[in-house]
Amino acid sequence: KVSSDNDNKSVFIAAFYKSGDKGSNKDQNLDRRIMVAPIVNYYKTYDSSTVIKSIKGANNADTLIDAMKQYQVVSMASHGTQHSLAIYDYNGNRKNYLTSYTIDKLDLNVFKNLKICLVSGCETAKESGNITESISNKGAECVIGFKESTTRPQSITWTEAFNEIIAKGGCVKTAVGYADWLVISKYETTGETDTYKIYGDYNISYEK
Q: Over the stretch 22-32, which tens digit does the pLDDT of each residue have?
């Protein structure tokens, strides 16, 4: 079970790549580790009281589901498919998956406290019945996934840029716009910018 000092000011990050991995060719060979940490560990420029205290880690779907029940913002990044997001332990070993099938069995509106959820991974918003849609169907106000395969390092840049704007209090529309701009500017390619799908209200931001 995860918890925060103040559930009304909570942001939950589950990054399945090593902290500080900026997506160079060398970085792509690093072991992938699930780490759950406050956004402030990624970005040092804003008030840490708006995010949760550091959480050491997790390696099961229940932890992520518990986070989506509690927190206003949950951002997850890993290898994905239409119906799943892979979960790794600290040694880089894949432990299990968060799946749309598991989420579909949960109570209606179980994620009623969840304002913004990013499911960053290949095909997490592909066609209908995908894992992103499943989260949306359980009460989350805005959920973002990707319709096609994503690429590194573009996907990491996009995800961290999105997280940065959300943590600063920006809305989803602003966050995806900034993430798009940064990917295009840095890599001179559209990268992930035309492959994501938004379910719900993209004008929403979280309450600090």
A: 433 333 333 33
